[in-house]
Specification:
single chain; 65% helix
Length: 158
């Protein structure tokens, strides 16, 4: 009997302590609901990631294996095949003469539509009138030609 009385006292003490905390919290308002909503989503996403981390890891491993073996076509915008050659840009290179820097500067130069005919005329002077501007900017085989165009058109002030 003494044990039951002790449990009842502990239970009622815990209830009083919890009710005291709940009385301190303001009544639910629109702002309170916004705060709870803003906090609940990140907590829920974090809990899901932690809870299903093994499954998520396996799904990512499967996707990586599939990307290595299969052709990828994303919305007819990006197509990567097993035989595609991808050339990574060196982001840590501050060398202004690197192909990535030259390509970026040429893209900035032709972003002004008035400069597109200037680049096309320069390509015609170089005997490359059949070369598409898109191929000139993107293909690695034209890196030297891009370097010459950069030196003559942008650095030369033409």
């Amino acid at each position: 009997m003494l044990f039951v009385a002790f449990l009842f006292a502990a239970y009622s003490g815990a209830v009083q302590w919890l009710s005291g905390i709940l009385r301190i919290i303001p009544a639910p308002t629109e702002h309170w609901a916004t705060i709870i909503g803003d906090v609940a989503w990140p907590i829920m996403i974090a809990w899901l990631v932690v809870r299903f981390r093994q499954s998520l890891r396996r799904i990512i491993e499967i996707l990586i294996i599939r990307f290595k073996r299969d052709d990828i076509d994303i919305g007819n915008v990006l197509k990567v095949t097993r035989n595609s050659t991808l050339v990574p840009l060196q982001a840590d290179s501050d060398d202004a003469s690197s192909d990535a820097s030259v390509t970026e500067r040429l893209l900035e130069y032709i972003s002004d539509s008035a400069n597109v005919p200037i680049v096309a005329a320069w390509l015609n002077q170089q005997g490359r009138d059949a070369l598409d501007l898109r191929e000139f900017i993107t293909l690695t085989e034209y890196a030297d030609l891009r370097q010459h165009a950069y030196q003559q058109l942008i650095e030369g002030g033409a």
